[in-house]
Amino acid sequence: xxxxxxxxxxxxxxxxxxxxxxxxxxxxxxxxxxxxxxxxxxxxxxxxxxxxxxxxxxxxxxxxxxxxxxxxxxxxxxxxxxxxxxxxxxxxxxxxxxxxxxxxxxxxxxxx
Length: 112
Fold this sequence. Notes:
Layout: E1 5-8, E2 15-19, E3 28-33, E4 40-45, E5 49-54, E6 64-67, E7 73-80, E8 89-95, E9 100-104
Antiparallel strand pairs: 1-2, 3-4, 4-5, 5-6, 7-8, 8-9
């Protein structure tokens, strides 16, 4: 609810990494690991901003942020084929109106 993200290992109650205020206090409403690249995850906050984290490139801050200004995004999920090395990775965004938007991610965050 405060924008903090914690990375846990299943065998410990304490986080391996913790990023406080990663969304400047906005609640995170969706978070998902990339299907095609294990070190990348995406977070959606309550102000419809999507944060891309690539832990191999920078483990302190997101490597990119994209705000969806037109309409509030209520949830997101990722699509892709991890068994294929084509690097296609998409973000499916569900908007408040019920409209669905699919955007493809740059290959540098999608390639295995």
